[in-house]
């Protein structure tokens, strides 16, 4: 039997990663797989890379914010983003080079078990989410051409186990930034057995004050402005604040640049849940 620990979407959250690494010590894990978005959002990108460099690590879309910003590969709408410049300034060249050579997908071939494909978003894009509620025909289009019957994907920050056609699609959830209303770190044990692989989802508490203190210490909100503020809120209440805020802002203040006053107004709304994508409207009693 092979036992893997599958981690995804650590997002520069070192206290959450440390809690997960401690939790997995009790399970005799053979190897660790990290499915992208290792860096960015949280303030500990470099420290996270130092901890995971010996694992099977791949890239997600947030690695591209580091690697592609201000290159011809960057899409035009990144011009106004405040986060990539801060990321560039805080990640030294050594780690940029390490990340520049990471793979974008992994194929796991262990003896006595079916092969497993690991992707970040969908098999065809780091940016494309696969949710529980994504229509079956859309899922099939994303999975077309994938040889392996087992596909592990991150990116949504929501744990999932779903059968689609011949594919078993499994999301381990997010270590650093769960978005289901509970900020406890999420990861997955993955055991090979006679008829395939068995997933066991783990939820690990950690001291989020360590994360919040580091945001303060590095002056994150001062450096990244309204987006920085929403990122902090997103970690704190484990809900997708950035996209919801931008959706509300486009409806309420169309064409106007984001301000801290708008952020305050949004966070005080009783119905701010309404602006989340439906896939994230879960565990609303938390
Ligand atoms: Fe992510
Ligand atoms: Fe992602």
Structure description:
- The protein has 286 residues and is of the alpha/beta class.
- The chain is built from ten helices and ten strands.
- It has helices spanning 14-24, 45-52, 61-68, 83-90, 93-100, 136-143, 208-217, 220-237, 241-252, 260-267; strands at residues 3-7, 31-34, 56-57, 106-108, 116-119, 150-153, 160-164, 167-171, 185-193, 196-204.
- A five-stranded mixed sheet has the order 3-2-1-9-10.
- Helix 7 packs antiparallel against helix 8.
- The structure holds fe (ii) ion (FE2) (2 copies).
- One fe (ii) ion binds next to loops.
Give a brief outline of the structure.
Helix content is 35%, strand content 17%. The protein is an alpha/beta fold and 286 residues long. It has a 5-stranded mixed β-sheet. The chain has a 5-stranded mixed β-sheet with strand order 4-5-6-8-7, covered by helices on one side.
Topology:
Elements: E1 3-7, H1 14-24, E2 31-34, H2 45-52, E3 56-57, H3 61-68, H4 83-90, H5 93-100, E4 106-108, E5 116-119, H6 136-143, E6 150-153, E7 160-164, E8 167-171, E9 185-193, E10 196-204, H7 208-217, H8 220-237, H9 241-252, H10 260-267
Parallel strand pairs: 1-2, 2-3, 5-6, 6-8
Antiparallel strand pairs: 1-9, 4-5, 7-8, 9-10
Helix pairs in contact: 7-8
This protein binds fe (ii) ion (2 copies).
Reading the helices and strands in chain order gives: EHEHEHHHEEHEEEEEHHHH
Question: Strand share of the residues?
Answer: 15-25%
Low-confidence stretches: none
The total strand number stands at 10
Number of domains: 2
Q: Based on helices, strands and strand pairing, what is the structural class?
A: alpha/beta
Named once each, the bound ligands are:
fe (ii) ion
Principal-axes shape call: globular
């Amino acid at each position: 039997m092979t036992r893997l620990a599958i981690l995804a979407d650590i997002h520069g959250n070192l206290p959450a990663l440390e809690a997960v690494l401690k939790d997995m010590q009790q399970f005799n894990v053979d190897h660790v797989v990290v499915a992208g978005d290792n860096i960015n959002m949280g303030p500990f990108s470099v420290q996270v890379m130092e901890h995971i460099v010996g694992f099977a690590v791949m890239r997600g879309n947030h690695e591209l914010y580091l690697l592609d910003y201000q290159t011809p590969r960057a899409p035009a709408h990144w011009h106004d983003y405040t986060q990539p410049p801060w990321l560039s300034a805080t990640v030294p060249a050594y780690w940029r080079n390490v990340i520049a050579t990471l793979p974008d997908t992994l194929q796991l071939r262990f003896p006595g078990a079916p092969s497993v494909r690991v992707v970040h978003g969908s098999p065809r894009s780091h940016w494309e989410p696969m949710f529980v509620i994504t229509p079956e025909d859309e899922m099939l289009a994303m999975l077309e051409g994938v040889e392996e019957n087992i596909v592990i994907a991150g990116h949504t920050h929501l744990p999932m186990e779903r059968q689609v056609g011949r594919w078993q699609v499994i999301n381990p959830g997010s270590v650093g930034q769960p978005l289901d209303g509970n900020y406890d770190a999420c990861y997955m044990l993955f055991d090979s057995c006679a008829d395939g692989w068995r997933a066991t989802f783990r939820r690990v508490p950690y001291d989020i004050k360590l994360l919040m203190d580091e945001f303060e210490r590095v002056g994150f909100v001062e450096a990244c402005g309204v987006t920085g503020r929403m990122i902090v809120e997103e970690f704190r209440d484990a809900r997708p604040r950035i996209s919801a805020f931008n959706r509300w802002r486009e409806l309420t203040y169309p064409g106007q640049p984001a301000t801290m006053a708008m952020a305050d107004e949004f966070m005080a709304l009783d119905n701010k849940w309404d602006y989340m994508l439906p896939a994230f409207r879960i565990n609303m009693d938390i």
